[in-house]
Amino acid sequence: MTETEKPLSGIRVIDLTQILQGPYCAFLMAMAGAEIIKVEPLTGDRTRRHKESRVPPVAFAMLNSNKKSVTLNLRTPRGKDILKALVKDADVLLENYAPGVMDRLGLGYSVLKEINPRLIYATGTGYGITGPDRDNLAMDHTIQAAGGLMSITGERGGPPARAGGTPADVLGGIHMHAGVMQALLGREKTGKGTLVESAMVEAMYFVLAGDIASYYRHGKVPERRGDKSQSLHMPYSRYLCRDGRYMVLMAVAETHWDNILTVIGREDLIGHADYNSDAKRTVREHEINGMIEAWTKQRTRDEAVATLRAKRVPASPVRDVSEVMNDPHMHQRGMLKRMKHPDLGEVVLPRSPIRLSEYEMAGLEFYPQLGEHNREVLGGLLGMSDTDIAALEAEGVISRAEQPRTEKTSS
Question: For the chain, which residues score pLDDT lower than 50?
Fold first, then answer.
């Protein structure tokens, strides 16, 4: 498979993003073959946590595979000039600074589009670059709260809770990626670059679709239900098993309900007038969940799930992080790969969830060391000599490059 056969080969991305939202967007592009030049401050992306350890956490490794690292002090005139020189021949620039930061640096879209009219400039923020909330500080936790997700997460009658993981950051990154892809397609037609916006709080809105529908249906804010969404289907819950672990199931069709009854030994209720619709079963929710859990408590989680799946009932174990990391299904499909790094040791890293039948995605390569590609990028792309690069180090425009700790590993 040659480099030109990857879907985004030939696309050069200047990636100024840090932490999660923007780096995930850049990761998806890297795995599709784009050249990602990660421009980091002299101390590195904050997720590297260099003040704590020279070895970054696995989260950084996950999000920054297949990228090149260049350091640049954008507060210096020379640093600004170098970024502008990189932008001149780039296709995309990604940044997730707070609104207005790039403009104050003199590096906003209005400036860079004059240097490169074909540039696609993507900005990822919490609330957007306009509107009364644009300057609010935004983290995944605060966006979950502001975006309504916390209000529907938690146990019935209990306080609001944050959803596990970082869904706001990831959804923001996915929408940022989608916007860049749309802009690249548009540029093929018009030749024009554009400003792409992705606001995390807006990306969250469609997550609430079922709860918004419930609000319109009942005329009131839906209650929190830690065991189910606002779906009309019943049964739909989590169930404790003999080994102390949980499984979930739901019935979205009457055949599912009939099959559940068969599995738990209650065939006498198949077709019963008091149980033959979601609405009727909802009235008896506590009773029905009790019947199902009485059955699951006599079996281990995996036994219960296997039995239900064999009868084509939508069911799944509630798996922990370790189980997901070692999932045979995703390993067999190549989504997850076991790799060994001299600093991190043995780790599981993900590839892109996106697959295209006629294109090969890039093989996984470990994250770059801080400034590892200073010489390659500044010398190779901008024609700087070793003397020039040494002078930039001495002036504090770039940092001294860290040497790679491992060979690039493809899969």
Answer: 1, 410-411
